[in-house]
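Support request, please re-run this one:
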Amino acid sequence: MDSLPDLAAIEAMDEADPLRFFRSRFALPHGVIYLDGNSLGAASHDVFTELKQAMMEEWGNGLIRSWNSAGWFQLPLELGDRIGRLIGAAPGQTVVADSTSINIYKALHAALAMRLDRNIIVAEGDSFPTDLYMAEGVTSTRPGTTLRLEGRDADDIESLIDNQTAVVLVNHVNYKTGALRDMAALTRRIHEAGALVIWDLCHSAGALPVDLDGANADFAVGCTYKYLNGGPGAPAFIYAAHRHHASIVQPLSGWWSHARPFAFEQGFAEGDGIKRFLCGTPPVLSLRALKGALGIWDEVDLDMLRQKSIALSDLFIRLVEAKCGQYGVVLDTTRDSEQRGSQVSFTHDHGYEVMQALIECGVIGDFRAPSTLRFGFTPLYVSYRDVWQAAGVLEDILSSGSWQDARFAVRSAVT
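Re-run finished. Output below.
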């Protein structure tokens, strides 16, 4: 095995990092190494500026006039297009609205309505649970519609796709292992079977380049509070390819998706294009926080971001395996960086306790049951020194056995 880099080598890597200047634009607490941006991204200073403007001036002084004067009406579409640039979507195909769960529900219904002669939804058995919960909810409203799961009904998702498949709901990056799907290849396979695809981009938007249009995707959903740093509970986004816009029918036909919302008509008439996926009044303050967060992304080269993401995660794998492998830590993420998102997962029989000990020492990752230690690498504010130090702290915790302190076994409401 090659010798591990020393601190001088790590500092040289940071000095040569073309993205290093972005770190100062985030409000990171002193003494914390934050490796959980794949759950909740850090706040940028621009977010605070936007919120202050929206609260003190637009809401405080403009009151209801700000729907027009401050451009509140256009925020779902304006921010949708800005996210669209990050996910390979041409303008007019992405809108910010609701939550990921609600958008999954809308997209599944829309896809099923386009394939009325088919009754199968295909998804991953190890998907993030909300995807499966919403798919189950959709099947409960459509008699005869059933759910097939990779890992339960077949070993791979491709084997589940046939001429009865209406739609495939699939994650671009697996939330637990970080495994990255080949979007173009799987979309092509789904289309060959006559089905539609919904891509869940929660763990890839803002983490790596995505090319929805290039892959000929049908629909996509994703959140904005992870790598995009939109804030806790920030509104999600939904994408639909232009070719499907005239056919979109979804059951949450709220007044914001009406063709003439201020005509106050009794009957529903769907609006045009991607607006058909809107529902109710948008959360303006949350949208303004997201607007502040997206300002940084206008300056980011996504290929450069991906290169650093791979370098950070490769370094972490190398360091942890060398320093901690003897203490029962096992890699649960592919070594192939081309098939990995911007996170690394390890398992340990006492993963929960180990993670709590890490957090107490200022290294914040997260735990996923039953035994996964998960670390997210957000290249805009994570440094190579962060990675080097985090691996050292993990080694200290494991070698000393400090994780065995009884207080680390106490489960909190959010684990």
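The first strand starts at residue 33 and ends at 34. The chain has a mean pLDDT of 97.
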